[in-house]
Amino acid sequence: STAADFRNRQLGLAKDLAPDTAGMGSVEKGVYSGVQSAATTLMTLPLSVATGSPVPTLSALSAITAGQSLGEATDKGLPLNQALIHATKQGLIEYGTELFPVGNLLKNLTGKTGLLKTATQFMVREGIGEQAATVLQDLDKWATLNPEKPFSEYIAERPEAALETLIATAVGGSIQVGGAKAVAKGIEKLQGSSVVDLGKAQRAEEDHLSVQQLDEMAAKHPLRE
Questions:
Q1: What's the start-to-end Cα distance of the chain, in Å?
Q2: Over 24-80, what HEC string results?
Q3: How many other C-beta atoms lie within 10 A of the C-beta of residue 21?
Q4: Distances (CA, A) of 178 to 25, 41, 128, 156, 223
Q5: How far apart are alpha carbons 154 and 175 in whole angstroms?
Q6: Among 34, 31, 91, 98, residue whose Cα is nearest residue 64
Q7: Measuring CA to CA, which residue among 179, 177, 171 is closest to residue 115?
Q8: Does the pLDDT value for residue 22 go beyond 80?
Q9: DSSP state, 221?
Q10: How far apart are CA 48 and CA 50, in angstroms?
Q11: 72-103, pLDDT tens digit by residue?
Q12: What is the reported pLDDT for 224?
């Protein structure tokens, strides 16, 4: 019950902060979705940039997706085991479709690829991955959460869903690439300063040893007395 209460408070807060998308068109929904997605990704991207691995970002994104899906399934009245299966599928789809674009983005960041090339490659890969995720996740939601709806309704929703995904990818992708570049540059400066500090510390230690050796040599010299 404590977990349920916490989730309800989080949902209430999200509803208070988020705009009402009910009256929005495809373009507005796509822009809002893109900004929301970029904000979520940029929260976890620094750890992936620092480690050079997409796993931290992918794990966070898939966990968030799975958590939201679990809530949707329980709200629909599904038994816990079915809700967990649905959430797991949604999370795995998110992980799989984001693996290629996020991995390539990190490769370009560590390789110091130019901004234009990085953005172009990310947009193409992210666009393909997001469209695939939309199709697969919506299909799973239709089959699991809305089995009473005809399949023709799912098909009829594809053009609008594809447009929203395209806009969200363009908006979110541009923010993510710019933010990722800034994050990578910041981490590079921190790592660079650490190397400089380490170099200074090493030189100071070497200087200390040299002075100590000179003092020992001087102590043995007759002129010292």
A1: 83
A2: CCHHHHHHHHHHHHHHHHHHHHHHHHHHCCCHHHHHHHHHHHHHHHHHHHHHCCCCH
A3: 11
A4: 27, 12, 20, 35, 67
A5: 30
A6: 91
A7: 177
A8: no
A9: S
A10: 5
A11: 999 899 999 999 999 999 999 999 999 999 99
A12: 43
Q: Alpha-carbon distance 123 to 140, whole Å? A: 25
Residue in the structure block whose two tokens are 């931290």:
56
Q: Note whether 86 and 145 are within 8 A (CB).
A: yes
Q: What is the pTM of this model?
A: 0.73
Give the CA distances from residue 189 to residues 111, 186, 192, 195, 196, in Å, rounded to whole numbers and listed in that order.
Answer: 15, 5, 5, 10, 10
The Cα–Cα gap between 64 and 225 comes to 76
Q: What CA–CA distance (Å, rounded) separates 189 from 149?
A: 54
148's tokens: 């009473």
* Rg (alpha carbons) of the chain, rounded to whole number: 26
pLDDT band for 49, please (50, 70, 90 cuts): confident
